[in-house]
């Protein structure tokens, strides 16, 4: 195995605790770190590439019929292997937005197409659930089970805000573990059912979930009530019978005390590696374990960890995700060192033995993972992005690297900045401003008016835009005009 330091090329600010790494069509994708999109980058999903010790990001496009995918941190993510003629895909449920709003939505992410220059285009669809629907949450898990020729999705755990009726001024933003119910739903009809099992008596969050055939194993996790990480291990068995499913749960005595661990699969068989995570609020889990699922059950084997650097050893927090089979992207904070301008150090951990996985850019599918550390650093919105090119220019890139994210491409805020008086009636005050749209956190959303020499930026709130219209305007490259200049043009320009 190897531990290689990575130099982020103008993209370090986009990776924060709570990010998710996905793999589609052999490409590693970063999801969950975008705030408000600028004109040339409307999706918030990026391709991640490692080459010669450098890490680069490039924008990923969505198909025109895709729905808006908000920047979700610590969602439940589940990979769906190809079956019954359906392509490989990902389910994404819940999560926390940069505005600290908690989602209850379920999204299906698939590959839409590959351009002539191998440019990846994704398709995102929101799926409606009916019946006993799980509430908004984050830090939970999704797993797929197969039984009697059927498939179903298992959702468990997570945390959410304290119920509105129990909140006080002091506990308004307090979070609690969700009730320890198991939700089962099928993807074809969207029917959801809730199940209560006596073995699952306490809520747990940021645990590990691994599935094989009709069984799901829940490993570790953190409990808000007891503020502990007991070495729990449950085996949930799901029989998808005609009529109603049959669920049973067994408590095993070989669990691990861990939360927020990173999981990577090491081959087509059900063999995984657990790295990272926490044993307590002040103690990281520095050991590694191999987990094997077979017909006999689950087995844990100790695995020699990489040779940790002093920065990793002495850091209080760490986070990351699977970057393909036997490959992990790991990040630790720089702890505010003046000599290090970036917020985090990044490392590529490769568990392949010598002779395996020689191609750094080749990545395959991996298991479900948990990439949270809720009580480490506050969730912060990433910088707004501008790639300095129009979408058609990105499509014509022949080398596939033309849409690499570059912080230097962003506009100078001293000239286009957020705290300008954008129009005569502008009421935005930097000292009292609060988020108005769900996509905002630290800065108000802005729209670029194309009228006048060079155009100018105006606050979307001052233009009295609905959030739906604001999102639609940000997705295209057509010209649009502020309220002052729109009177000179046809209203159809806003359609």
From TrEMBL:
Q: Where is the composition biased (Acidic residues)?
A: 396-413
Where Zn(2+) binds, per the record, is at 422, 426, 449, 456, 459, 462, 482, 485
Annotated segments matching region Disordered: 357-413
Q: Where is the Recombination activating protein 2 PHD domain?
A: 417-488
Query: What are the alphabetically sorted keywords of the record?
Result: Chromatin regulator, DNA recombination, Metal-binding, Nucleus, Zinc, Zinc-finger
Q: Which domain of life is it from?
A: Eukaryota
Give GO MF terms, alphabetically: double-stranded DNA endonuclease activity; sequence-specific DNA binding; zinc ion binding
Among its keywords, does the record have ATP-binding? no
**Composition bias, kind Basic and acidic residues: at what positions?**
386-395
**Under the cellular component aspect of Gene Ontology, which terms does the record hold?**
DNA recombinase complex; endodeoxyribonuclease complex; nucleus
Location(s), subcellular = Nucleus
A GO BP term here is: thymus development
Subunit description: Component of the RAG complex composed of core components rag1 and rag2.
Quote the PANTHER family the UniProt record gives: V D J RECOMBINATION-ACTIVATING PROTEIN 2, V(D)J RECOMBINATION-ACTIVATING PROTEIN 2
Q: Which family does it belong to?
A: Belongs to the RAG2 family.
Q: What does this protein do?
A: Core component of the RAG complex, a multiprotein complex that mediates the DNA cleavage phase during V(D)J recombination. V(D)J recombination assembles a diverse repertoire of immunoglobulin and T-cell receptor genes in developing B and T lymphocytes through rearrangement of different V (variable), in some cases D (diversity), and J (joining) gene segments.
What's the protein here called? V(D)J recombination-activating protein 2
Source organism of the structure:
Mastacembelus armatus (zig-zag eel)
């Amino acid at each position: 195995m190897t531990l290689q330091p990575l130099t982020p090329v103008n993209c370090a600010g986009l990776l924060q605790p709570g990010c998710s790494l996905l793999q589609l069509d052999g490409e590693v994708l970063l999801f969950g770190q975008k705030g408000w999109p600028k004109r040339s980058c409307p999706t918030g999903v990026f391709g991640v590439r490692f080459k010669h010790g450098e890490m680069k990001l490039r924008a990923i496009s969505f198909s025109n019929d895709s729905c808006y995918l908000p920047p979700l941190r610590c969602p439940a993510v589940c990979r769906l292997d190809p079956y019954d003629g359906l392509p490989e895909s990902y389910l994404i449920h819940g999560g926390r937005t940069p505005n600290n709003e908690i989602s209850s939505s379920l999204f299906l992410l698939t590959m839409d197409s590959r351009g002539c220059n191998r440019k990846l285009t994704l398709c995102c669809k929101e799926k409606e659930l009916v019946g006993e629907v799980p509430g908004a949450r984050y830090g939970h898990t999704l797993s797929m089970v197969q039984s009697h020729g059927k498939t179903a999705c298992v959702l468990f755990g997570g945390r959410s805000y304290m119920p509105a009726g129990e909140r006080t001024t002091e506990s308004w933003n307090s979070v609690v573990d969700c009730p320890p119910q198991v939700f089962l739903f099928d993807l074809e009809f969207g029917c959801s059912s809730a199940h209560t099992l006596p073995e699952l008596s306490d809520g747990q969050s940021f645990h590990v979930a691994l599935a094989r055939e009709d069984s799901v194993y829940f490993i570790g996790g953190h409990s808000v009530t007891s503020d502990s990480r007991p070495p729990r291990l449950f085996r949930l068995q799901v029989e998808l019978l005609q009529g109603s499913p049959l669920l049973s749960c067994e408590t095993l005595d070989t669990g691990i005390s861990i939360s927020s661990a990173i999981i990577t699969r090491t081959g087509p068989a059900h063999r995984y590696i657990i790295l990272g995570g926490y044993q307590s609020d002040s103690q990281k889990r520095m050991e590694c374990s191999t987990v094997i699922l077979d017909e006999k059950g689950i087995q844990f084997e100790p695995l020699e960890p990489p040779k940790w650097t002093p920065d990793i050893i002495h850091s209080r927090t760490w986070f990351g995700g699977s970057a393909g089979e036997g490959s992990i992207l790991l990040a630790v904070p720089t702890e505010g060192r003046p000599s290090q301008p970036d917020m985090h150090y990044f490392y590529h951990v490769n568990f392949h033995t010598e002779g395996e996985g020689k191609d750094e850019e080749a990545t395959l599918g991996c298991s479900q993972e948990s990439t949270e550390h809720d009580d480490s650093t506050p969730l912060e919105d990433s910088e707004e992005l501008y790639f300095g090119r129009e979408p058609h220019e990105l499509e014509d890139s022949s080398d596939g690297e033309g849409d690499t994210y570059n912080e230097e491409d962003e506009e100078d805020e001293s000239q286009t900045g957020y705290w300008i008086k954008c129009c005569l009636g502008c009421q935005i005050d930097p000292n009292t401003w609060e988020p108005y749209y769900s996509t905002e956190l630290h800065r108000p959303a802005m729209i670029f008016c194309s009228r006048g020499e060079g155009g100018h930026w105006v606050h979307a709130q001052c233009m009295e835009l609905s959030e739906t219209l604001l999102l639609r305007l940000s997705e295209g490259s057509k010209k649009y005009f502020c309220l002052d200049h729109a009177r000179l043009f046809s209203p159809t320009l806003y359609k």
